[in-house]
Amino acid sequence: MTSIDAMKTCIECGCIKPMAKFYVFNVMEDGRMPWCKACHNGLTKWHKEQAAFYADRQLGDPSEETIRFQCERIQAGWTEKKRARRRVLSA
Ligand SMILES: [Zn+2]
Questions:
Q1: Phi, psi of 41, rounded to the nearest 5 degrees
Q2: What is the bridge-based pairing of β-strands 7-9 and 16-18?
Q3: How far is the CA of 51 from the centre of ligand 1 (A)?
Q4: Planar angle of CA 47, 50, 56, nearest 5 degrees
Q5: Would you write out the chain's pLDDT as a tens digit for each of its 91 residues?
Q6: pTM of the entire structure?
Q7: What's the CA-to-centroid distance between 67 and ligand 1, angstroms?
């Protein structure tokens, strides 16, 4: 279905990039993460920054609400089908 030469639109930055710029993620239908490597690394950094922010203020870990907000922002670009699949996996 998806060749290695195919292009994919990153749901985070909206850039159209070659599949090689997306990490392999077998859960997805096309076998790649919905956001590019650059955005993935940025998201990881975001999580670290959030963790540091809360640690500094001794508020404990980022609340579930905070994490859910970020996840929903990401998943907003996903299709309902993919979301349903993710629910099954995380159940
Ligand atoms: Zn991106």
A1: -65, -35
A2: antiparallel
A3: 22
A4: 140
A5: 555 578 999 998 899 999 999 999 888 889 999 999 998 888 888 777 777 777 776 655 556 666 666 666 666 666 566 666 666 666 5
A6: 0.48
A7: 19
